[in-house]
Amino acid sequence: MNTKLSFRPQWSKRAMALVVAAAPLQWAFASATQSSALSQNSPFNNQTPASVVQTDKIHSVKGHVADETGEPLIGATVAVEGTNVKTVTDIDGNFSINLSKAPATAMLRISYMGYKDKVVNGAANLNVTMQLDQQSIDEVVVTALGIKREKKMLGYSVQEVKADKLNVTGDPSVVGALDGKVAGLQMNTASTGLGGSTKITIRGNSSLTDNNQPLWIVDGVPFTDDQTSSASTYGGYDRGGTSFDINPEDIESISVLKGPNAAALYGSRAGNGVILVTTKRGSHKQGFGVSYSGNFTWSQAAETLKMQKLYGQGSQGQFLFNEDENGNKTTMTGELAFGPRFDGSMQTNWLGEKAPYSYTGDRLKDYFRTGFSQAHTVAVGTSSEKSHFRLSVGYNGNDGLFKNESLNKINVDLNAGATINEWLSLDGKISVSNTKAENRPYTGLNGEVAQLLLMPGNVSLRDLEQNYTSPNKLHQNWFGPDQHYSNPYYARHRFKNSDERWRAFGYYSANVNLTDWLKFNAKYSFDYYRTRLQTSDLSLGDGAISTDGTGWQGKLVNDGMTRAEENHFEQNIQFLLMGDNQLAKKWRLGYTAGANIMYLKFEQLSASVQNMLEKDNWIFNTGNKLISALDDGHSRAMYSAFASAQLAYDEWLSLDITARNDWSSTLPKKNNSFFYPSASLSWVFSDFMRSIDHKLPSWITFAKLRVSAAQVGKDPAPYNLYNVRKYQFEMGNRKPINNTIKLNANLKPEIKTSYEVGVDMKFLDNRLGFDFTYYYNTTKNQAMLVDASSPWTQQWVNAGKINNTGVEFMLYGTPVKTRDFQFDITANLAHNSSTVKELADGVNRVYFAGDSNMPVKVGAVKGGKLGDIFANNLMQRDAQGRVIIGADGLPMAATGDGNLEQYLLDHPIGNIQPDLLMSITPTFTYKGISLTAMFDMKFGGDIVSVSEGMATSVGTSERTAYRGEYKTVNGVQDWYMVVPGVKADGSVNTQEVSAQKYYSTIGLYSSQKGYAEEFVHDASYIKLKELSLGYSFPQKMLRRTPLTQLKLSFVARNLCFLMKHTPGNPDGGYDTTMFSQAIDYMAVPYTRTFGFSVNVGF
Fold first, then answer.
1. What's the number of CA atoms in the CB half-sphere (13 Å) around residue 999?
2. Which three-class secondary structure state does DSSP give residue 175?
3. Phi, psi torsion values for 81, nearest 5 degrees
4. Does residue 835 sit in helix, strand or coil?
5. Do 259 and 140 share a domain, yes or no?
6. Scanning 296, 408, 538, 579, which has its CA 20 to 30 A from the CA of 618?
């Protein structure tokens, strides 16, 4: 029987005092408008509580329990050692307990979750300060298959990020929140607007086909993180990664399993590591706990490409004008910014209006609006020894820098479980999300950023905004309009798009306790999402406004719409048998055996129409011409069996062995079965020394050595075995899809072998510690494309070998710690080197997939580093590396003595691999005030600023501000300069050349011309990535409110670069490929975000 006593609040403490010495209690204390309750495991039986019985042998002891900041600890257990007498502290941290013997001889043990137990003498009045048990907090981590293990017993590297460290600044993306917090985890986010795609690599790139993404697991469910960017040189959209569907506020922790050593049990999909997400469960309290978190932030364009502010529209230092039919000059014209120096003189602009010839401002900043984001999450839940329940609802709304750009997300997450009886328990989760984006920015040359970049400084944004379309809806611009030049406001009006994704994922699980040492688990999990897309293009039209305002009689042509749908459905059925046996006094054996069945299906439908009949009311069915239709997709299946064993001796020595076999549908039958093992050893040296009564120096708290070896296979993408004919509808006809790649019915699985050693140490009672790891990986049998004989252009083969070596170092410490103040610091460092050891027979280089319109290629040569950058053209240089200048005063182009391709391969202009990734996170806490900052750093690696190269071609980049001397040479007036270099005979160059001609020659407006080597920059940077200043209200201030927690914070992300060498954003790519990592191309400006957050508990 359970007895509950309810009291009015003003009598609660007196009532508690009456029953404090009774049988074990559970209690809850609420606000002044609520009640307090005490739950007793046995009835009072009409007897007077022991605490009020007058007896000479009863002694009352009172006390107060608080943490190191002085905040009271509610519900701390106070027990009399050697007896069953215990009680808990009240809302003020106070307790009273009755002793049957003199207080001086009684010992009280005070315990509280996450804190070190404290034993004190039962004096009359006690003030107890509890200390955090950091080792207890960190000692259990989530590993493969969701199994929780003691971290000290692991023989491989696992790094965990808890919820309180993950999203301190309210990033709407879990990827953005995780960035910089794990050693060896590199993230390259495309600069393409809200929710841009992110390339995630753990321990560097190891694939010749750019297949380097890790596997995501959310609460045991394989979770697809597709990167869906169609951005290219001339346009397209980046729809971001599907991991955006996760609500960061629902996350309890993230464990990063770095490579095969930690992730072998997950099989071939985990060859690049695993990001293991564990979401929150119900709160551990009587009744339901309710929480709310809110974030409100504003975003501004911060870092942009630097532009020259001295010269405007024109050519050869002179104005260019349109003329009327009588030959009279009318409006200024010309697409280049090589006109006269700004002087404020009144000139007739493109609208036919008089305006000062002056610099009109930084259009790369002035064009963008201030973005706004708000996020709200409400959660209710409870948890006990026999059940748990949590329901959360989240909303995230984002308005971007571009007009009408938005990205909104709704999340509903439910997880629950219950112990049915002593042998059966059930558990389940369902998470539903809706992500909807409107008007993502159009990338490439036709996008807004490109048009702002190429526009002369005298053109007014205000004029463009007010006159981007004519009365008859034709496109108007300061020049053109044509394929290369358009009004940025018309581009925003022209390209419309939307995408909406509904997603549901979850699992149902049953756990059966066969014995007290053997358990069985059956689990069904699924991940389904459907995305619907729509894009529309008004086209350029074919008219522009002339000086008299009448314009040409043009009409909109080739305007059109595209609609598409994508469906992804993955299902997994898994069976696990788990045992744990004490073999002898000090020997313990844990083991797991299981099987998994995976089935995945993907479908894609799309159709495009042109020449819309209703220009003001765009409906897909009003398209006058069906341009294309596509019905495509793929499916794949995998059957797996796996087992593991963990043998531990005396809590200081542990050996883990795993084995897995996969049968993949994407491989031919004779090669579709592949087996791979792993083994790891952990030796806790400090515990071993203590076990033999050998003392270590007092300043060494913990020391562990670990070593591991693993192998994992990886199957290729579906449908790479046999060539089959596919068709699509295009331009009114059914046409075969022209596939020039020869497939291979003898493909084998890719094999990655990994070796790892590490040292973990803690000092000064856990005040200082580090984790160090060295790894060596070899990846072979890679599926790669090589040249093929006619009628094929390429074919798939198994070849190639890549070695990855690197180190990871995590340092953490608490240099200062007093009663009221604490200073903590964490640093993550990682270095990786990826080298191409072998390629296919007869192949000496490989290029990664990329845009052929770019002036560079990215790939590798045999014996070289993965990710070398190769230019399409190079300048001719002498033996000392000096540029050779021709008789025309311009750099001479390299010829390679007749073998230019080999010369270009022998002279890469850079490499995408950084030398060092690093982050430093200091945290300062004073009473309830906390200040946290994260400094994100990258040293080494290169990036080609194609944006700067194109702006140089037209005269708008900052480097073109230097133009030499304006004078007449050979009868031609222009700005003339001398290009640094030497003549063919080795003498210093003195030949003058037009500045316009020089910059147009080296610039990158054309992919087949220009010199990319002029625009290679060191991609190193140091930036202040996160900043949070918060205040947690003390419990005594909340005592008379319904709140149990209240925290207010100022938050900021990407505040500034403290060091960089690039003229724009060092992370300026437009998608997630290795090719894109090498270039900055028309990137959306680096965005600074700031605002505030609130966290409330009830």
1. 28
2. helix
3. -65, 140
4. strand
5. yes
6. 408
CA dist., res. 401 & res. 193, Å (int): 8
Q: 1076 near 849, Cβ under 8 Å?
A: no
pLDDT of residue 1045: 87
Residue 593 within any structural domain of the chain: no
Asked if 214 and 202 touch (Cβ cutoff 8 Å), the reply is yes
pLDDT on residue 540: 55
Of 303, 337, 366, which residue sits at a domain end? 366
User: Average pLDDT over the chain, rounded to whole?
Assistant: 85
Q: Crossing angle of helices 995-1002/946-954, nearest 10°? A: 150
557: amino acid identity, one letter: V
CB atoms within 10 A of CB 1060: 20
Asked if 126 and 145 sit in the same domain, the reply is no
> 274 is in which domain, residue-wise?
136-282
CB atoms within 10 A of CB 529: 20
Q: Residue 98 maps to which CATH number?
A: 2.60.40.1120
Q: Is residue 258 situated within a structural domain?
A: yes
b/e map of 729-749 (b: 16 or more CB within 10 Å)? beeeeeeeeeeeebbbeebbb
E strands present in 400-489: 406-419, 424-438
The last residue of one of the domains, among 336, 366, 396, is 366
Q: In terms of Cα–Cα distance, which of 42, 30, 37 is closest to 7? A: 37
DSSP 711: E
> For residue 54, what pLDDT band results from cuts at 50, 70 and 90?
very low
Tokens 């990886």 -> residue = 714
Residues 141 and 270 both lie in one domain: yes
Q: What is the mean pLDDT of residues 730-740?
A: 70
Name 462's Cβ contacts closer than 8 Å, sequence gap at least 6.
Answer: none
Length of the chain: 1098
C-alpha 385/C-alpha 393 separation (Å) is 25
How far is Cα 709 from Cα 775, in angstroms, rounded to an integer?
10
